[in-house]
Every structure is written in C-alpha cells, then in structure tokens.
Write a structure and sequence with these properties.
The chain is of the alpha/beta class. The protein has two domains: 64 residues; 188 residues, Vaccinia Virus protein VP39 (Rossmann fold, 3-Layer(aba) Sandwich), CATH 3.40.50.150. Helix content is 43%, strand content 20%. It contains twelve helices and nine strands. The strands form two sheets. Strands 5-4-3-6-7-9-8 form a seven-stranded mixed sheet, with helices on both faces. Strand 4, helix 8 and strand 5 form a beta-alpha-beta unit. Helix 2 packs across helix 4. The longest helix is centred in the N-terminal third of the chain and has 15 residues. The protein is elongated. The N and C termini lie far apart (66 Å).
C-alpha cells in the first residue's frame, strides 16, 4: 500500500467515526508510524509502506478510534513554538494556556527580583517556556511524581534552567521569595464530569483536571499560598475557567491589587492576574 492510499483510507475511517479533523489526524499518525514529518508523506506519496509502518499505523488508528488523544499516541504536543513530550501522567498543553505565558512575561519586568514559580507544572510547558523566553531560572512544583518525570525529560530536552520540586502547591518554597507565580491549576468542577469529552475524562489525569465540586478548591488554597510566598509587589498569574473568573478575582481582592482578567481568542475569560500588596 502506498503512502497516499494509507492516508486516504485512514482519513476515511476516522471521518466515518466522527473523529475531528480526520485528514490531519491521519497525517500525524502516519508520519509518526514512519518516524518522519508530514512533509515527507507528500514528498513520498507513491512510496510503498513497509510492513512495520503499516502495523504501527493500524495500531495508532485503532487507539484514536478508541478515544485516545492523538498527542498521547505520538507522545508530543507543540506549545509556544516548541515540542513537548506528553503522556497520560500530564495534561495535554492547550493553546489557550499560552495566554498565561504572555501575561506572565508582561508582568515580569515590574515584579522585581525573586523566584519565578510554576505551580502544578505537569509537563513543564509553562515553566520551561517562561525560563526560555525570559532567560531567568524557574522553579516548577507538582504533587505528582510521574508528572515531574515528564517535566524533567522536557527540561533536559530543551535545556531549560528549571528546577523541579515535589510538593503540594508551594509547600517547598520559603516565604517572601517569589517575584511571580504562574499556574494552570485544576479547575473543572466535578459536576461537569458527565459532560466532558471521552478523550478528556477517560485519558487525562483527573488530579490535574478537577478542582472540587465547584472547581474552586485549588484556587482557594493557591491564592492563600501565593500571599505567603510572593514578595510584596509580586504577581500571581492563573488560568481560569470561562465561568470562574469573577470568583477568582473576589478571592484575590483580600490581599492583591491591580487585579485584571484577560480573554482568549474566543473572547472568553482565560487568565486572572493580581499583584500582592
């Protein structure tokens, strides 16, 4: 079977199963099966697939049909222009989280000296991106040992000045040492569980998804922790759900000033930031 025929058949199978963007998914999976990039597929469209590549491709298609996200099959996801290793131990980095990076980088110059911290780092996408974009070292924390192992692989692969700490939120950090804390905490309400896509609820780590009954459990603790760890004038930058930004801003009001909300490209609330008084 040629590369072109394999692509056409894969895209048709995925389309019939109502898998989103079936052609692109087939291209990504076939490129991974032949251990090359998508451009290679078009340059070699009349080449015959090897038996090994065909077997791999068939397995990847089956996994995707069973609901496994493409990123967990290929073990890769792009974020802020860099490739990150991902596994079911970590959330798949989303493009919306790049707004956390943009906001944090904007606030850094006025935050003064001190540590930059990524709380609940998962794959390390936020910590590594902040370190490489700012040129400053970053501390990344997570309660999950498997997640920290993925973050370590990404840090080493991208040669980022990031140190990793196994702790709950900011538990490993001393008081008044941080200039900026960034976080994409678990914020999905448990009540949303039945309505989530199977790709999310069946494959992504629940510890990184769910923020208690109303989605606010981690925000309540993180904002209190940040008030201890940040230096006066330091910034807390957090991703939020589209319907939780007002409640997060209310929590910040007790100890933070210059509170602001940023929207994503869809116009939905995505980031809330505040500066410690």
């Amino acid at each position: 079977m040629t590369v072109r025929t394999a692509l056409e058949q894969g895209a048709r199978i995925l389309s019939e199963a109502s898998i989103p963007v079936p052609r692109l998914t087939a291209e990504v999976l076939l490129a991974y099966a032949v251990r090359n990039d998508r451009a290679w597929l078009y340059a070699h469209s009349t080449d015959e697939l090897t038996e090994v590549a065909w077997i791999h491709y068939g397995r990847y298609l089956k996994e995707r049909l069973d609901g496994k996200p493409t990123q967990y099959i290929t073990r890769r996801q792009e974020f802020y222009g860099r490739d990150f290793i991902v596994s079911p131990a970590v959330l798949i980095p989303r493009p919306e989280t790049e707004h956390v990076i943009e906001t944090a980088l904007e606030k850094l110059p006025g935050a003064g000296p001190g540590a930059i911290v990524d709380v609940g780092c998962g794959s390390g996408a936020i910590a590594i991106t902040l370190a490489l974009e700012s040129g400053r070292p970053v501390i990344a924390t997570d309660i999950s040992a498997p997640a920290l192992a993925v973050a370590a692989r990404n840090r080493d692969a991208l040669a980022a000045p990031v140190s990793l700490a196994a702790c709950d939120l900011t538990g490993a950090l001393a008081s008044r040492t941080a200039a900026l804390i960034a976080s994409n905490p678990p914020y999905v309400p448990l009540t949303d569980h039945p309505s989530l896509q199977r790709e999310v609820v069946d494959f992504e780590p629940h510890i990184a998804l769910f923020g208690g009954p109303d989605g606010m459990a981690i925000y309540n603790r993180l904002i209190a922790d940040a008030a201890r760890v940040l230096k006066p004038g330091g910034w807390l930058v957090m991703e939020v759900a589209y319907n939780s930004d007002a409640r997060v801003r209310e929590l910040l009001a007790a100890n933070f000033t210059d509170i602001e909300m940023r929207t994503d490209l869809a116009g939905l609330p995505r980031v809330v930031a505040g500066r410690l008084r």
